[in-house]
Please model this.
Amino acid sequence: MKDGLLTAATWFIDADSAEVGGFVDRALEGVAASDPTTVAVALFRAVRDGIRYDPYNISRSNLDYRASSIAVTSSNWCVPKAVLLTAAARRSGIPARLGFADVRNHLTTEKLSERMGTDVFYWHGYSELLLGDRWFKISSAFNMELCDRFGVKVLDFDGTDDALMHPFDQTGRRHMEYVAERGSYNDLPLDEMLADFDIFYPGLATLSGDDEPDAAFGPSL
Model:
């Protein structure tokens, strides 16, 4: 994919929307916007901590996956947060795309594992940002407060390395294992993702916002 495509707005990654513009303006207040890496770090932290992780907020409406809709939410899960970070980066002139992988969560609770029918979390979403001549993979899913609460290492990004899920928690227990890469996308493949959820998570419809996020961090990361 050429860089021009990766800085342009799409239907889901509507980087040209007023809502995304407002989010970027707030995130970059007081930030040296001339340095793309500094901008990327500020945008990452704004998405990570400005939108609380909520694994039980999985919508089937296309509108809920547009960056403009996500930008005004207070909580969301990994895929929408990745869409927003990707849109914010494009708004700031940083080439960006979506990346997806299947991960095994070794700390999934028994309750959640029974309801999901698996400990594999399909279509974990993250952003890929081009800084200089390197693509960085960046997961903005887990907000700092939630990580501290459940003893999980906080994912941070400083512009020198990827920020993907930690393989171990703070006590050394095995946590996230990447088992399959799904590739990079210019826009969100929502229909394909939801179709797979219907196959792999037949009990997904029974999950609700009444459930408390736990160390497993929900039905889809």
Q: What stands out?
A: The chain has one domain: 5-204. Confidence is low (pLDDT under 50) at residues 213-221. Residues 5-204 form a domain with the C8orf32 fold fold (CATH 3.10.620).
